[in-house]
Structures are given as structure tokens and as C-alpha cells.
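Input/output pair, single chain:
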Amino acid sequence: FDDDAATIQALVSGQVKAVGGNQFYGQRLDAASAGTYERKINFLTTYNGVGTRLGEKDWNEAVNAFIDKIKANGELAAITKKWMAIDLPQFPESIPNIPFTVQ
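Output:
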């Protein structure tokens, strides 16, 4: 299907028996037909992130400090709950070949 709306409509209308999609499909399906569908499997979690230019150590440290602060004081969880309507996912401590800090 071309987009999320068409995919969800195909399920609601009975055109398909199951769909795979992002973490927001459950919310949209509940809005369209509450209590009819259930999430069976979580394949992955999508993280929102911040990118900085390679080598900009000061900027990278400032961004990381800000993220650490709003994670620690609960503000990031509150923002995620308000705007995404999901709990803040558990962030990985590292990702292979992706540096979180500038060396």
C-alpha cells in the first residue's frame, strides 16, 4: 500500500487479515475500531535522534548533556508521552559502528 492510511484502511475493511507497520498503527487502529485488533509482535523500536557533524566535539558534548538532562529529570519521557502517545523507549547504550561521542 502507498501509505499508512491505505494500509490501515485495508485491514479495517477486511481487504487483508494483518499488517505490519510502525509503532503508531496501534493507536490509529484503536481510533478506527477500538478493541478489534491487537499487536502480536514488536520487530523493532524506532528512535528519534540528533545528528551532529563529525569532529564537532563541543557541539556533540552540549547536545549529549542536554539529552542526558531531560532524560534524567523526566522531561523527555513526558514529551514522548504527550506527542507520541507512547512510553519513552529504552535507548541502547551503543550501536555498532555508530559513535555517540566525538573522540
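The mean pLDDT is 87. Residues 11 and 18 are 6 Å apart (CA to CA).
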